[in-house]
Design goal:
Shape: globular
Number of strands: 41
Strand content: over 45%
Helix content: 10-25%
Structural class: mainly beta
Strand order of the largest sheet: 20-19-18-29-28-27-26-25-24-23-22-21
Number of helices: 10
Distance between the termini: 88 Å
Radius of gyration: 32 Å
Amino acid sequence: MRARFVRLTWRELYGAAAAWHNPRCVSVLSGGHSVTVHRRRTMREIMRLLLLLVVAASLVMALGAQSPTFESGDPGALSVKVVKVRRCEETQRKASHYGCLVSVEVHNRGDLLAEPTVFEVVAKKDRAGRSLEPVRVKRFAGSLHGRAGRAIEAGARLRYTFFCPSDLPKRGVKASVARASFFRGACQPELTMRVRNVEHEKFTYGNVTPQILDLTRCEVTNPLAHPVDAAFRVVLEKPYSGRALLLVHLEPNETKRWEIQEQSYSNRAFLLGPRARKFELVDWSVHRDDGRGIAAKAFRDVWRRWRRWSDHEAKVSGRFEYEYTEVPGPRSHRKEPRRLRVQGAFTITGERSVDVQPSASIEESDAGRIEWGLARAFDPLRRPPADEVATADSMFLVQSGDPVVLGFRGRGWDWRSANDGSEMQATLSIRDGAIVASGYLDGLTPPHRWHTRQQGDGFVVTGIDMPNHRLRFDFEERGGRLLPISYFEAHDIEGVISSRTQLTIFDVEVTGAAQPSAVDAGPAATELRSAWDACYRYPDGSVTLRGRFHAENKGRNEHAWLGVNRVKGAVTISGFDGRRYRGAEVEIRQKIDAGKRKQVEFMVMDRFRIWSGRDFCARPSFDDAFAGATVSKAPDDAGVFRIENGPYFEVVVRDGRIVELVYDGGTRRKIGYTKVGAHVVPTSLRTGRETVTAKFQAFRGWLIPVEFRFDKVFGEDWGPETLKLTKLKVE
């Protein structure tokens, strides 16, 4: 049988002792419990009883102060029953805009204390019969890790209420727990938090077209020594008549003068100008552990594996070729696309001081775009050390598991950001030792998706997809240093590309940098050099490719291809030297909606970049790739070469050919070959479950890839996709 303790305050105990002289008896009330003390007992007995009560109260307080121990758990152990779905507005107008309040009952079938942090709501259709997509809803914005507030004991049930931005039907709605905090120890089963001094005022919103809107001002206090997120269900009079859920964050023991001008929900819904009354506390969550140590270690590990220059402030110079295309919008006075091509030289000094000398006169805005592109192309490599970017005190753990999500206070991981972090908190998502996404904790900004690839003993960033904005990077090893060779940027409006920039970088010199020593000349290095040079490598120089293309996907990537599964047309690639090219023109020659044309053209060239970024025929010379490295043979396998201070951890050689590259993080890339004429050509690359293959054809002393197949490049359910070049001319 579980013991039950009664908590008495010192004031209540003192009142019990002082009331000893009252006739008959004394009743002490605390938390709904009654302790009756009879007058006939002696003072010694009374003092003994009071001492026991004090000990019991102290024990309860000590138990409540225990820090929870967070563990991994299975959200599937939390079953959810939807109890009630209620539209926020009572007027029934604009229902799909304001959404619904959803009440659910969660049953904890596991053996750990559990607090749901993210729910997924599913309904086939809304009240008007329109199809609905599943919606993920965070109970509160901010970190998901370290929550130990309204938790559910093992085998128990608890109800939660949250806001969903969809116009859900009353029946047929299902919900599940997508994320939860699991722990052992103590939670906060009850919380008393009242809203006081509610006032209403008017305020001016907006500068261009100002509006007079309502503001609700009140006062609320956090009685706990930990940060608390609280949800109050209120009755709204404006901007609509009905109910709403208002969220507030309070620091430990904080009394906040809460001015509610607007409400931003973590699932991107927005409420402006609320006039609220009847505040009722319906949910809360206590943040007990920010996971600072875990976050700091994860950040330093991923920052170490992200390839960078040790001399990140070194002076850089080189040459560039810039191509810019701007497509006029529907309201533009210009009807034809604007195109600009220019060459020139550049110099980068300090952290980000870029000086551009174009070969022809260009507009100031174009010079600014070139400077911006050059800075972005070098930024991933010219990063400062981790300690200069973020300290342990500025980081916290948002989410453990897969992926790990880190939060940053202040400027955070983005060392270029001008934001001081007073309002927005940045995040990084990490999976398999590499960055996969970045974003903000406000929940209103869609996350930025990162694309990376293994490069030497770490990884490089090859692309970042943002809302209406995409970046692509390409790098190569030269002279023992990783250098950017191209930068691509595209802007789109509702899926239609409005502008794109292609920047090609060459003849790069780093002034004052220490030159790496030559590769050692031992017998192992000589044997590895022979295998490195045994298969085909592109010759020096560059060529122009002109021909037709045919691209096809199996329908699993329709969101990127905008539903176009097959496309054909003409393509011209100038300045191709294997890894990079200085310009590309794609012309679709079939009926495709004008709004989709630019996006599909972009997708065609992006698939060509997927291969060229991995193409083993474009590898540098042995001396450039292994400058400063020490090569030795593994004692247990004559075909395995161990590399120290080089681009790989191991290189596996069979029958005189390199068949596998093993990177420092453990990633393995297997290489397959095909005989093309007199050459042995690497045509198959398998990295993990990702597979890319190509077929080559001879043209005027060059072997050119003319047919590509891509499988599982961006996940298990991605692809396959194919790209074929036909009627190709090499100039």
